Amino acid sequence: MKVLITGIDGYSGWPLALHLLGRGHDVVGIDNFVTRRRVKEVGSWSATPIPTFARRQAAVHEILRKDIGFYRGDLSNFEFVRRVLATERPDAIVHLAEQRSAPYSMIDVHHAVATQVENLTGTLHLLYAMRECSPDTHLVKMGTMGEYGTPNIDIAEGFFEVEFNGRKDRLPFPRSAGSWYHWSKVFDSGDVMYATKIWNLRSTDVMQGVIYGIRTPEIRDDRLLTRFDFDETWGTALNRFIAQAVVGLPITPYGRGEQRRGFIALEDSMQSLRIAVEHPASRGEYRVFNQFDAAYSVNELAHIVHRVATDLGLHPTIDHPTDPRVEAEQHYYNPLHDNLIALGYRRTRELEEVIREIFHDLIRYRRRLEARRHVIQATVQWRSADSRPALAARHAETPPLAEKGHPAPPAGPQGSSEPASAHPTA
Ligand SMILES: NC(=O)c1ccc[n+]([C@@H]2O[C@H](COP(=O)([O-])OP(=O)(O)OC[C@H]3O[C@@H](n4cnc5c(N)ncnc54)[C@H](O)[C@@H]3O)[C@@H](O)[C@H]2O)c1
Question: From ligand 1's centre to the CA of 8, what distance in Å?
Answer without folding.
Answer: 9
